[in-house]
Amino acid sequence: MTDSTLKLGDKDYPVRKGSVGPEVVDIRKFYAQSGMFTYDPGFTSTASCESGLTYIDGDAGVLLHRGYPIDQLAEQSSFMEVAYLLLNHELPSKDELDKFSYTISRHTMLHEQLAQFYRGFRRDAHPMAIMCGVVGALSAFYHDSTDITDPQQRMIASHRLIAKMPTIAAMAYKYSVGQPFLYPDNSLSYTGNFLRMTFGVPAEEYVVDPVVEAAMDKIFILHADHEQNASTSTVRLAGSSGANPFACIAAGIACLWGPAHGGANEAALNMLREIGRPERIPEYIARAKNKDDPFRLMGFGHRVYKNFDPRAKVLSKAASDVLDSLGINDPVLDTARELERIALSDPYFIDKKLYPNVDFYSGVILSAIGFPTTMFTVLFALARTVGWVAQWNEMISDPDQKIGRPRQLYTGPTQRDYVPVSQR
Ligand code: ACO
After folding, report:
1. Is residue 166 a contact partner of residue 108, using CB atoms and an 8 Å limit?
2. pLDDT at res. 266
3. Which residue of the set 359, 398, 400, 417 is catalytic?
4. What is the DSSP-derived secondary structure letter of residue 91?
5. Which residues are CB-neighbours of 117 under 8 A, at least 6 positions away?
6. Distance between CA atoms of 366 and 215, rounded to whole angstroms?
7. Arithmetic mean of pLDDT, 181-198
8. Which domain of life is it from (predicted)?
9. Rounded to an integer, what distance in angstroms lies between the CA atom of residue 17 and that of residue 6?
10. For a surface tag, which of 47, 60, 70, 319 has the fewest beta carbons within 10 Å of its beta carbon?
11. Residue 254 C-alpha to ligand 1 middle, in angstroms?
12. Would the pLDDT of 80 be above 70?
């Protein structure tokens, strides 16, 4: 909806209102009319698309999926329900949810040939490296769902990605510990099946612990989507050229891996373990504040949340619940709580509005469940696949969609004549 304009130079540009949140100035004609580009590295003031999926109010600590607050979804729904909601706009009825869960379960197996890909990796390969490679390789297998102009094929590719990601992730883990791969068991829930494929062994029956299953499902819900973050924007940009959907998700996984993004959960737990005990916290706080030291408190700070990250609130409580239920007394949780307390009373962190983010407590829970730190970002990628495919579908069905092609402020040499090497 347009109801006002903003004057830039001597031209008026339409200002568009969303349903909630900041308005945007539509500058699509700005270059044609002014001969200038806008400059916004890091996209701090740029809306790259129109979306109806996820809304974040960073100042108020609000995160909504299709209007539903994340804490309500985390406490009351399931990951399959949230996946349906993100893909299909509305929460499912009981029948719709059953049908959706059944459809996903029918795609959990990988093409047998794909298992061979794992054997090409070193046993000590990072599981994110394996995941990037194997998900990219899916594009060489499922040719009947890659006509992106067909909504039906797009939905099949989306279901395949959501369904196969737990199998791919569990196989990456099994490969690293030298245990046999387990085929999916579709009598289990999405999350229960993933836990069995990860921690089960063929020699024994695996019984899914309901506490662990619920905690894992909650972690998946909390990571399902997060608006136009770096990896989602990567998926959209890759997809904007009409690229194969599986290859686009592999691009998202590559972006997520970085320590400033999804890789922070691994880095956060490693940091907490390195700190080791609450007495050492001041030393690390001092390092985080020292401009000459590149060290940052991992799991702290966020580009958008400047009050609190609502996902961190849910996980902070879940961390205590899970450790209590499993009877685990991990000093890392005490270190995390004390670090949060000290940092949040320090003017440096208060002034810069740095709060724990989703990655701060998730590692404590994942570690209690039994995952090595290298698997943390893999679990994030598994859950975020839902958001990536929903955002990708939304982009492809948007009539305004164009190939993503940013411009630049060029500061290199101006034109000059080539000099043969013998004369240089
Ligand atoms: N520890 C110490 N100082 C910090 C931290 C931190 N974790 N985060 C930001 N700062 C400081 C910066 O040094 C900077 O200070 P300055 O203004 O004096 O230069 C200021 O706060 C602003 O930081 P920017 O890096 O400019 O903020 P930006 O929005 O670009 O970065 C980011 C956000 C990348 C998340 C950053 O806070 C960070 O590196 N955090 C640690 C990594 C992390 O936890 N990432 C996970 C994010 S959540 C997710 O992806 C799921």
Report:
1. yes
2. 86
3. 359
4. P
5. 133, 134, 137
6. 9
7. 97
8. Bacteria
9. 13
10. 60
11. 20
12. yes
Q: How far apart (Å, rounded) are the C-alpha atoms in residues 262 and 373? A: 12
- How far apart are the C-alpha atoms of 27 and 41, rounded to whole Å? 16
DSSP classification of residue 181: P
Ligand 1 contacts (CB < 6 A) are 260-262, 264, 288, 296-303, 352, 354, 357-359
Q: How far away, in angstroms, is 404 Cα from ligand 1 center?
A: 26
DSSP 8-state symbol, 338: H
pLDDT digits 0-9 by tens, 334-389? 899 999 999 889 999 999 999 999 888 898 899 999 999 999 999 999 999 999 99
pLDDT in tens, 279-313: 899 999 999 999 999 999 999 999 889 888 999 99
pLDDT, tens only, 115-165? 999 999 999 999 999 999 999 999 999 988 889 999 999 999 999 999 999
Task: Give the dihedral of Cα atoms 44, 61, 222, 82; nearest 10 deg.
Answer: -90
Spatial strand order in the sheet of 2-8: 2-8, 11-16, 24-25
Asked if pLDDT for residue 1 goes beyond 80, the answer is no
Measured between its terminal Cα atoms, the distance across the chain in Å is 59
Q: Is 359 a catalytic residue?
A: yes
Report the predicted TM-score, pTM, of the whole model to 2 decimal places: 0.92
Tokens standing for residue 406: 């940013």
CB neighbour list of residue 237: distance below 8 Å, 6 or more residues apart: 404
Q: How far is the CA of 238 from the centre of ligand 1 (A)?
A: 26
Contacts of 40 (CB under 8 A, 6+ apart): 46
Tell me the domains of the chain and their CATH numbers: 2-47 (2.20.28.60), 69-404 (1.10.580.10)
Q: If we measure between CA atoms, which residue out of 63, 97, 96, 67 comes closest to residue 80?
A: 97
